[in-house]
Write a structure and sequence with these properties.
The chain is an alpha/beta fold. It has four helices and 15 strands. The strands form three sheets. Strands 5-7-9-11-14-15 form a six-stranded mixed β-sheet, with helices on one face. Helix 1 crosses helix 2. The radius of gyration is 19 Å and the shape is elongated.
């Protein structure tokens, strides 16, 4: 395993630098050992992961993430991709949001949901992509969408109200948290027929209703998830 896997920390994440000359199955075994050895150092940190040094298919990326979570206590929030704009927005959100400490680590899904596709999970989930109209995400805990939400999202589907939905572009066709539904308002346009510039938003519950607001430090400091 000599230098076949190198771990480097960066702000809010870990870079996994992989040898591109060894067989893939051997690489997976080396990654498992590397994260077992590093577990005492990283502990249960919530991090983004960057995979570098080797071209991987999306299936291989998921397998690598599975190996990391199976062999460490890390909470993998996101796989950093090539879309730098989304990466920057994600890190800004991550600096202010974290999954509740008594929950298991969240799941990760890379890709967009369209054409009626859906995801249902008992865990919190982060989606690196869009949830398009006609598709939906169902989570018993929290939902973070690093893309646009024009489909349906249901957080706290197990009945809990202390959960949230975050999206970089928030325009859902339906949104629920626990048993409460968000009152969808028609999207406003300017006098010139242009839609207002989108900003990352969070939907959460307060006093028996679902609120949706732009993400700011002041907002997040004002309530407890």
């Amino acid at each position: 395993m000599k230098n076949s896997v190198i771990l480097k920390s960066f702000s809010s994440g870990i870079s996994v630098i992989m040898d591109d000359t060894i067989p893939y199955e051997e690489l997976l075994a080396d990654i498992a050992v590397k994260f077992q050895e590093a577990d005492r150092f990283f502990k249960d940190a919530a991090v983004a992961i960057s995979l570098e040094g080797r071209n991987l298919t999306e299936q291989q990326e998921r397998e690598v993430l599975d190996i990391i979570t199976q062999n460490s206590r890390l909470k993998v929030l996101c796989l950093m991709g090539r879309d730098q704009d989304k990466n920057i927005k994600f890190l800004g959100i991550q600096n202010n949001l974290s999954f509740q400490k008594d929950e298991n680590c969240g799941q990760f899904y890379r890709g967009s949901l369209s054409g009626g596709q859906s995801i249902e999970t008992e865990n919190s989930i982060i989606i690196l992509g869009d949830v398009c109209e006609g598709s939906y995400v169902w989570s018993a805990k929290d939902i973070v969408i690093l893309g646009s939400l024009t489909g349906e999202a249901h957080a706290g589907a197990g009945g809990g109200l202390n959960h949230f939905v975050v999206a970089l572009e928030m325009n859902p066709s339906a949104l629920k948290i626990g048993s409460l539904s968000y009152n969808i308002q028609p999207q406003k346009t300017s006098l010139w027929g242009r839609k207002p510039k989108s900003t990352p938003k969070i939907a959460y519950t307060y006093n028996g209703e679902v609120l949706m607001e732009s993400i700011t430090k002041e907002l997040l400091d004002g309530f407890t998830l």
